[in-house]
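Quick question about two entries, pasted in order.
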Amino acid sequence: MSESKQLKSVIRRTVAYWSILAVFTICLGAVSFAQAGVTPSFRGIGFMKDGGPTSHANGISGDGSTVIGSAWGPSGTEACTWTTADGFVGLGDLPGAGFSSTAYGASYDGSVVVGKSNYVSGWEEAFRWTAATGIASLGVLPGGYPSSVATDVSADGSVVTGFSNSDIYTYGANEAFRWTAGGMVGLGALGGDTSPMSEGHGISGDGSIVVGYSTSPFIEAFGWTAAEGMVGLGGLPSITSTTSQSEAISADGSTIVGQSTHFDGPEAFIWRRRDDGGGNMVGLGDLFGGSFHSHAFDVSGNGAVVVGDSWSASAFREPFVWDPIHGMRSLKGILVNDYGLDLTGWDLRTAFGVSDDGQTIVGTGVNPSGRPEGWIVTIAAPEFAIGYDYEVAGANFASVVLPEAGDDLFALFLWDGASFVFEQELAAGELFAFAAAGVSRFRILGIEENAFLDPDDPSTFAAAFTFTSGGTPDVTALGLVPEPSTVSLLMVITLAKLTSKRRTLRARK
């Protein structure tokens, strides 16, 4: 890649906007913060009109606007959507057999919903719903019992995954499928077992990647693409035979979550794709107390926030939220202890879905009246550093070496007494020596958000310094985070200005 192209990629992705989050003295550790513009909230979604006191929130649209699941309606259990503006909207069911339907997945804006419904065959069958078409069957794979379930749908609603009984095995077994306007196509199985089966449980935003689990010969999480077919993801280390299952994939296709057996018991996992196409499965632990058990059910659009449930000291399942900075935390603990919300009488049980921005979480629990009820929560999603400002007293910086993070390319800015001015691009591990007298301030930008660095803790970006002779250096760092939703745009860059070796970026207050 040319210097010009490298520079454009480093600057364009991170410095179109930024804000100073907090000031840290490196030796003193992190400072807590709250994300601006987010009002924490909790509410039960209630029940369907003219129905019974039961509702289930099985997921949420990527934009956080639409809860999907089921409720006890006038005719029986009915797939539904729920929004703040409209409340419950029943989606009906397929014709024939007893009335029953459930929704499991939605497109980014909630306009397309998928799930399962009883059908004229007497079996459950996958459906796809839009306001224009109503509820429509997606059919079944050939050769097996006439049964199928749709579990997830792409961001634009055009690609659906799930599983259908098929002739994958002599006596019939479930087989993962991928459905488009051209019809339903089976994805096969991993192989290595005399009773092959597979189930699709999640799909990437563009519909190109399906995740789920299959026999291999043990039950194993998989990822599927048209180019590579079905690929096993392995499992966490275990003293018994390892089993794993994928439940969801981030919209950007980078991160898969689910559950695997582990030494201590069933454990939620996260699997991240590496640049070489492979990936690593890592256990997320469990909540304190109770038997060791956790299960991840969904992940935000960039893979930063994972939700699910875990056994805890309450001896019941409890929803968790996990992110790379805070690890696994009790959702109820966040709401009650951090935000001071009143959840008296609620047993939240399980978190099934999270919006792409990681701020809206849904699940199903038991309400104060002892009835199953869906709920929706808004919390602040974690923010990740895109850069740091460094300043020293008692000496000057003589040189700096930057650590590996993201794509290992960064932009160095020097302070000219009035503003930060672009100096040059730096690569991880490259020694940069400042002018003979050194400098007292400089800025590093170009850290990718998906490096998931803690802006509260500069040690997560372990830059190495040398200093000019003089007094004892006292280094402070300022964490920089993107803030696209605010009007206080502190830095503006146009690609037209990226034509000279030295480029000036000016703060606009």
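Here is the second entry:
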Amino acid sequence: MDKQNILIIDDDNKSIHLVTSALNISNLYNIHFAINAKNGIEQLELREHSLIILDVNSPQLDANETVKIIKNSSLQNQIPIIFLSEISPAKPFRKEEFLRKVKRNIKLYLSRKKQIEIDDTKILLEQYKIATDAGSLVSKTDARGIITYVNDRFCEVSKYSREELIGNPHNITRSPDVSKDTFKDLWETILAKETWKGTIKNRAKDGSPYYVESTVMPILNANDEIVTYISIRTDITSREITLREGILSSQKEILNTLGELGEWRSKETGEHVTRVSLFSEMLAKAYDCSEEEIQLIKMASPMHDIGKVIIPDNILLKPGKLTKEESLVMQNHTLYGWEIFNKSKNALLQAAALIAHQHHERWDGTGYPRGIGGEDIHVFGRITAVADVFDALTQERAYKKAWSLEKTLDFMKDESGKAFDPKIIDLLLENIDEIIEIKTLHTKE
């Protein structure tokens, strides 16, 4: 235990000497002196004291007034006071009894001080908990990661009840879009008894996404063993969705511009990629694709012919029929499109790579570049193929006149089960009025 400060308020040198000699024997105390109440307050302002010894018999000191001044001050007014009575031959100084009283009072003071600190800490923690619960998603798990506590805010955002969450691992709210590497890093960090911080996409009970900034901290016992984990999360869904929508909008604009570049090189109008995008979106909805898939194909389908930017002009712009060798070169635009985008891990660019690669595959397996067929062709490729051919046939090109709607639909029906997925052709026919409306709105006179 650190040395405790004791303040002696006395103006009698004999008393001061006796008391000081007794206290110095144990070498447990730092002793300070004052000759009156005013001087005592000054000493209390300089340092913390654990005990005051006050001479009640000094003619220069009014003991009651001195105590009143000390107790009424804001400075350490809980300090115990030992009153020192007259020391004389008739009333000798009992050193051992005095030292026991000193130790007892200091021990009691330190114990009371410790309890006040504990009580203050409890109040502070309770206030902190109330403040944290009001704005954050809080949960606790055991050492295995099983949820043992969630606050109301966690239930509100995740849309799960407390009963549904407690007893389950946190992956009940995990989004499949989050990579395994993220959770591997999280567990490696907290198992190393360190705090992990990061942004995580979660999935609510109704399937909707929500984003949180998470702090996960291991709690250790006296043996330095992990007994629980506490997680505090801030809901940043609104901010994250706005940010992601901005990024997606930028990506969409870039992809549309690149798609138009491919069309421009082949002397076609940029409206073609817009119509293919909107046809593909409509067909994906009719096909019951997920909302995420619908948005991906809408934004990525304009890239279906991006590989044409690499095809030589003498082949790409040739007005007449291509030779067999030239046709093989032209077919390479599907491979070039794939190679442009496939190295990216971005979902949108992966979709663009897939569409560029597969939109000339045929349902019967006689297409290019790989000759795959049926459902081995990704639905994005099958939908874009229908959208692309329908628009190409109904538009005038440098090498052909526009086909009538009747002739185009007859061709599409005839190629159902050959070039095209029969289900998608059926959806095209069922929704032909909406297709025509899109075409009309996005075709310049």
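Reply: The first helix runs from residue 13 to 26. The mean pLDDT is 85. Hope that helps.
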